[in-house]
Amino acid sequence: MASPSGRYFSSSQSYAPSAPSLPESYDQLQQQQERFGYGYQSGYGYYGQHETSYGHRSSFPPGTHPDVIRSFELVDRDRSGFIDEIELQQALSSGYQRFSLRTIRLLVFIFTNPCDSLRIGPSEFAALWSCLGQWRGIFERFDRDRSGKIDAVELRDALCSLGYALPPSVLQLLISKYEDGSGRRLELSFDSFVECGMIVKGLTEKFKEKDPGYSGSATLTYDSFMSMAIPFLVSYC
C-alpha cells in the first residue's frame, strides 16, 4: 500500500519519520532551541516569561531565547501581540536569509489556525523559528559543497532522509517551478528548500489527519480534498 511519502508498507506499519514539526511541549522547544543554536549562553541565559513593552507578560514559551523575542517585538510595531505576513518576513530576515512572500504565506498557513485570521502570535513565532533552525541544519547537511544552494539530487536525498521518498515524477513536478529554461543545473536556495519541504510536509500532515490509523489510505470528500490541497496550490503559484 502506498504511503503519502511514496514508500510502501503494510497496514501494520506506521508512517515514515516526519520532518521537523511543532514542538509538543515547552521542554521539547527548549531542547530544539539549544540543539540548533538558540540554547543557553553564558551570562545571557533564557527568559522564562518575558516582560515586554506591551505592558503585560507575553505568551512566549518558557526558554525562548531573547533574540527570538526581540525579533518579534521589533516588527510588532502596534504592540498587538500578533504580526502579519509582511512583519513575519521582516522578522525572519533578522535571523535567516530573506524569504520570499510566497514562502512566508505558506509558513503562516502551516503554523496558524485558519480560523484565527492567519496571524502569528508569540508561541507560533517561537515554534516557527525553532522549526526553521532544524530545516537550516538539514539544508547545510546536504549542501555538501557549501555553496549555499542544493541541487535536485541533494533535495531528493534531504527529503528522503526525512521519510519523504518522492517518486521521480513528483519530485520533478515539485522543482519545475524553479527551472528557468536555460538548461543549467537547477540549484535551490534555503528559501526554495523550505518552500518545497513545507509543501511535502504540510500535505503529508493533512493526509495523516484523514488517516488516523496510519494505514496509508484515506477516504476524502470533494470538499475535504479541496480544502486540503488548494492552500498549498495557491501559495505555490
Automatic annotation (TrEMBL):
PROSITE patterns given in the database record: EF_HAND_1, EF_HAND_2
CDD domains the UniProt entry points to: EFh_PEF_Group_I
All residue ranges annotated as the EF-hand domain in the record: 63-98, 130-165
Region of interest: Disordered: 1-29
Bias (Low complexity): 10-21
SMART domains: EFh
Protein name: Calmodulin-like protein 48
Organism: Carica papaya
